[in-house]
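Help! Submission page says 'invalid entity' but I think these are all valid:
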Amino acid sequence: MSAASAWERAEAFATEWQALTGRVRLGRTADGALSELLDELREIDARRVAIWDDPRNEDVGLEPALTAAGIAALRWGRDVRSGAEVADVDAGITWADGAVASTGSVLLRAGSGQGRSVSLLPPVYFVLVRADEIAVTRGELLRKLTASGKPMPSAATFVTGPSRTADIEMDLAVGVHGPGRVTAIILP
Amino acid sequence: MSIGTFKERARRALGNDALKRAVMFSTTRLRDGRYHAAAQVEWEALRTKGQAIRKRCVANLPANLDRFVAKVRAAGGYVHMAADADQATRIVRDLAKARGVQRVVKSKSMISEEIHLNQHLEADGIEVVETDLGEYIVQLAGEIPSHIITPALHKSRREVAELLSRQAGEPLDDDTITLTAFARRRLREEFLRADMGITGCNFGVAESGSVCIVTNEGNGRMVTTLPRIQVTLMGMERLVETFEDLDVMLDLLPRAATGQKLTSYVNIMTGPRRDDELDGPEELHVVILDNGRSQLLGTEFEEALHCIRCGACFNVCPVYRQVGGHAYGSTYAGPIGAVITPLLKGVERWGELAHASSLCGACYDACPVKIPLHDLLIQIRRLEAEGVVKAKGKGAERLAFRGWRIVMESPRLYRLLLRLGRLAQRPVVRQGRIRWAPPPLGGWLAGRDLPALPTKSFRERWAELEAEKPQATMADKEHAG
């Protein structure tokens, strides 16, 4: 996969994600992506955010960056251990295990450090997406999920934009149970 | 809900202008959404693919079930087979009792409606809260869903505001943002307090024992993330074999249901939470319901089991669009409801629903897996007719058809009756239409009218035209030769 085609897929993903009122920030470098994220967090005046306990956080230096910006980073399994404990944080930040350009979806895998609640209960959600992990179709990710020889995760979730409903007179509203404001941070 | 006949309930619905407006508006929006979404892909090719997958998966259902059950168990889940509604409710009640469950939150499940689970759990003193916004509204109103995708589509925002205001203990504005924000706050408490989450199942994947739930609001994720016990209710026909199959179904279902490329959340769950995980259910129970389904396997009605419950047929049905879901009096409304209700619950009692159709075939055109619903409706009518041939009143019908045959086989008699009809209709023709007739013919005219017989029939006009141009005909023939 060439870098150029990865960024093309990223653009296609961004178009679909934005069509659903999702927000997108592009970082050409990991540091660039982090500063985009911090920008967004300042915009919503975030003080406390929940993050996964995930080796990818260290790869980009997520926790130190948040702490340096004066934001409390609550790590799943260490600082917060249940849905109730992340219900009142300002935002949740997790990693995507790939994304789908054609539908504007991100794939989340549950795991020991990867609590399901972090992407679900806070009102604002940030998902970190590696540009070279953006596939064209959902089928590619499903094949990867099942062909790896490893057992299926307890939960694999495709998230496509914010939580939404049209149950009252077909009038679209976002954030009914899950997050209403969702931002994809795309990084190399 | 099912008091009286379909005709009586339909008549009541037709007299309710607010209901008719709401149903027409919402079904049109959903229908047009599907048109739009279908236009962006190779829709017909996708439908054909979907049909083939459903056909294969249902044809191999016994083997697929065995595989699915083994895989769910291997992943650490429990499987319960329920032959009928009683067994299914018993399984869930016993489980709730054994685990000391006090509070249940539910995401949308038509199976739970089919087995009337809520009232059984409530009878045991368990608090049950529906968390899909539409289902929550319907539950507060003490009703049942009128549409399988948007359960409260018959409710106006003012009605919703009244229902939610009663919950809030204060008057709420009737704008969508206020109402959904209240539901979020209120139901969030329920999610966090509940011991058991009950879900439906859009697809079970046989190769992995996964359960796939497709939602927009996120309540399906809440229900499977926070409570310590997850119960997933699944109709036995809901299986696909592989993730490749699932992928095609996920292309079809959201587009057909709401016109979305994909819903906000597609949750694929395999077993309960692992030992090292901190959220997700500690226990996963999959209850697989038969309730008459297996009897359709290998019959002319097997295709009814192909349904993926998208509701697309509701939105195009000229009957549903007029009367809404409650007129059907059954758990499943619309064309697919008119097919499976008589098949699963008995033709004697429910066969009337097969007549709630104009047989126009719009349902078939809309169906993402190409179920020939209009053919199945005719087959059900046939079953019904065979079953009640000797019943009272049918003798007259038989006599009428015998008379019809005699007339249609004799051109002379036909012409004579036509002339008589022209005379007989005179007192009832108004502006070229017949809108009233004495009983028993009058019933047919209650909801429609009939064009009057013309003063000259086609045969009479033809004869006149022939007489006008005798030469030309011969000349034409020579040229043509």
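Support: the input was valid. A stray whitespace character was the problem, and the output above is from the cleaned input. DSSP finds 22 helices and 13 strands in chain B.
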